[in-house]
Amino acid sequence: MGKISSVSPFAPVALARLPAIEGVAFATAEAGIRYKGRPDLLLAVLDKGTSVAGVFTQSKTASAPVLACRKNLKKGKARALVVNSGNANAFTGKKGREAVEMTIAHAAEAVGCKPNEVFVASTGVIGEPLDAGKFVRLLPGLAKRAEPDAFEKAARAIMTTDTYPKLATRKALIEGTEVTINGFCKGAGMIAPDMATMLCFIFTDAAISADVLQALVAEHTETTFNCMTVDGDTSTSDTCLVFATGDAARRGQKSITNAKTNKLKDFSAALEDLMRDLAIQVAKDGEGLSKFVTFEVEGAKSWRAARAIARACANSPILKTAIAGEDPNWGRVVMAVGKSGEAADRDKLAIWFGPHCVARDGERAPDYNEKTVAAYMKNRELVIRINVGVGKASATVWTCDLTHDYVSINADYRS
Amino acid sequence: MGKISSVSPFAPVALARLPAIEGVAFATAEAGIRYKGRPDLLLAVLDKGTSVAGVFTQSKTASAPVLACRKNLKKGKARALVVNSGNANAFTGKKGREAVEMTIAHAAEAVGCKPNEVFVASTGVIGEPLDAGKFVRLLPGLAKRAEPDAFEKAARAIMTTDTYPKLATRKALIEGTEVTINGFCKGAGMIAPDMATMLCFIFTDAAISADVLQALVAEHTETTFNCMTVDGDTSTSDTCLVFATGDAARRGQKSITNAKTNKLKDFSAALEDLMRDLAIQVAKDGEGLSKFVTFEVEGAKSWRAARAIARACANSPILKTAIAGEDPNWGRVVMAVGKSGEAADRDKLAIWFGPHCVARDGERAPDYNEKTVAAYMKNRELVIRINVGVGKASATVWTCDLTHDYVSINADYRS
To answer: Domains in chain A and their CATH numbers?
Structure first.
C-alpha cells in the first residue's frame, strides 16, 4: 500500500494569486492551540458597512461557533472574522459557548465594533474544550498589523490536514463597475486525525445588501459545495460566509438591495463559478485520494433527483473502492442508482465511462470492450455519465475514490 | 496490511445443526454458472399447500428474479425455489426476464406445479446475461433426488464469497403443537469481486396462511435485516422468503389465518429471533471486517429516528475506519448523530464505549480516561451506546468496521 503521499496528486502547480480587496485585511498568528510552529489563528478586519451572509452545516450537533454565526447573521453586518484551526469547539457544552463569547468580546474590542458584528469559525478536534484565553490576548496585535494583500497567508492559517490551500478569484461587472470576488476554503469532509470541516470565506468589494447576498450564497451552495463529497460524512462545523465591503460604491457602484435584479447577473455567475472552483479544489484534496471523479446524471425527473442519484454514486464505498482499483465496475453504478430511491427506468438506463458507453437500454452495451474501458480507468480524472431515462433534468457531483490511504489516514493513526 | 484472511474471525466454531422439516427437500448441483468445482444451483421442493411470503430490495433497479417473485407472491403458494449463485441476473434487460421465465417453466415441469408456484433468486455478477439453458436441464434430476436433511448443503450452494454458511434453527409452540423454523442466508451487502446480495430463505412446518406470514416477515425484517449493514450499499437482489409447508397440521396444529391472534406470539418471537441471528451472522461475515460493532441508540423521539441515528453511525466511513484503528474517536459519533438529521439534544447527548461513559451532558465526561477506553477498543466485539436525550425510543443496529481488507477485496481485485 506504500507510504501516504504528503500532497494530493491534484495539488495545483501554482496557487491562484488573489488581489487585495478594498476594505479587507488579514493577520495571522501562531497561537499554539493544537499545532506547534505554524499559524493557527486568523483575524480578518472588515470595513464599516460590510454586509455578510452565510450558510452552515445541517448537522443537529452543530458547533458553538456555527450557532453564534447564525445569531449574528440576523443583523447582516460584519467587521471582524476570527478563525482558529486545531480545535473545532464542537460538542463542548457550556464551555464552548463561553469560549465563543470571550473570542467575540475581545475581537469586538480589538477592532472597535459591536459583538454582533464579529463572526467566528473553528476547525479541528471535536469535544475538546477550546481554551480561548490562549489566543484572545493576541487579537489587539493582529488588528493593528492586519494587511490587505494576505489571502494566501489567511488560507494557510485555517488548514488542518489539507495538503494545499484552496484559493480562487473572479472579476465581475455590476452596472459597469468592476468588482472583485476572492475566496478561500479548507477541508474535505472529515480529515484525520480528527473531525474536520469545510470552511469557506468569500470577500468582495461589491456593494450588496445582506439579504441579497444571502439569497445568492444559499442558491449557489446547492450547486457547488452541496454537489461535492469526499466520504458523505457531514461535519459539525461546515461554514460558508460571504462578506461584501461595499467599497466599490466609492468607484460608483450603486448598492444592490434587490435579489431579483438583472444587474447582478454577472456577479452571481462569477460567484457561483468561484464557489464551484473552491468545491472542486476541496474534492481534489480528499483524504488519500488517487482519482478525482465527476458523476454526471441526466434524464432524471428533477434536478434534486439527479443530484440524489449522483450523490448515491459518489458516496458508495463499494463503487469508490472499485474506482480506486481501476475496475470499470458499472454493475456498482447500477446498484447506486437503484439505492438512491429516485425514479429511474431500468430498461432505459445508460452508463458511460468517459467517452465509452458501457451499458444502454437496461443492459450491457453490445459493443462494450472491457479492455478499452479498463484503459480509460487508468486516467487520474474520470467522468462517469448516467442517463436514467425518466426525464430531462441533470446534475453533476464531484468526488474522489476510496483508497487504502483513506483507511490508513483514519484508522492507522492513533491520536 | 497483510494477507486477507480467508475466513471471518467471527465464523462460528460449529455450524448450527438444522433438523429436517416436513414438506421441505433440497438438492444442489455444480452447474458451472461462474464458479468451477463447487455447487452453484439449489432446488428446494415444497409440499402441496405450502404458503409463502417475502420481502425484497427497495432498489429501483431490482433484478429480474426479484420482479418475478413479487409477481408470484400474489398467489401466496409455493412448490419450488430455484437459486443460483455466480450471476445476479440483474440489469440484464429482456434476456434477464427470459432467463427467469425459462427457469420457472422448467422447474414447474420438474416438480409438477404451476409456474406461479415457483420462486427464484440469483446472486453474483451484475449485468452479465444469465444463460439459464446451462442449468435448467439439471432441474428434473434435482427434483428426483431432493432430500430433507440437507440445509447445510443448501446454504453452501448459494454462497458467493461468504466465508461461512449462515444457518439458524428455532422451535416454537402454536396452541401446544411444536413447530420448527429453519433459515439460511448468504451475503453481506456487496461482496467482491462483484455485487452480491442478501438472500435469506426460511422454512417452517407450521400451518400459517400467506397473508399472516407476510405480516410477520415484513414486521420482523424491519428490526432484523434492516438493522444490519456492512457498507450501506443496497443490492439489486435482496430477498427474504419464508415458506410454511403446513405439515404440522397433521400433528394437530390448526391453521392460523389471522395475523392479530395471540396464538402466534411464540412463533412470531421465534421467527424474529431466528431472523436476528441470521442478520448478525451476515454482519459478522462483512467484507474484510476485524470487529463486529453494535450501535445502541436510546432516548430518541421514535424507533425510526433511533434506527436512523444508529444507521448513520454504522454507515459512516470515517467512524468505521476509526474503529478499525481501535481509536475511541467519539467525536465521530457526535458527527454521525448530527448528520442523521434526526432530533437530538446536543446538551444532553451521552455516549458509552462498552461500559465506559465517554461523553455526557453534551461534552466529554469529566472522568473520561483515554487509556481505559483505548483498551476497550481492542476487543473484537464492541458496543457503542448513544443517548440522544429527546425521548424514550431505542433501536439497535449491527455492523462491522471498515478496514484495509475491505479496500483490498473491492479495489485490488480486477475481475
So the answer is: 24-283 (3.60.70.12), 292-412 (3.10.20.340)
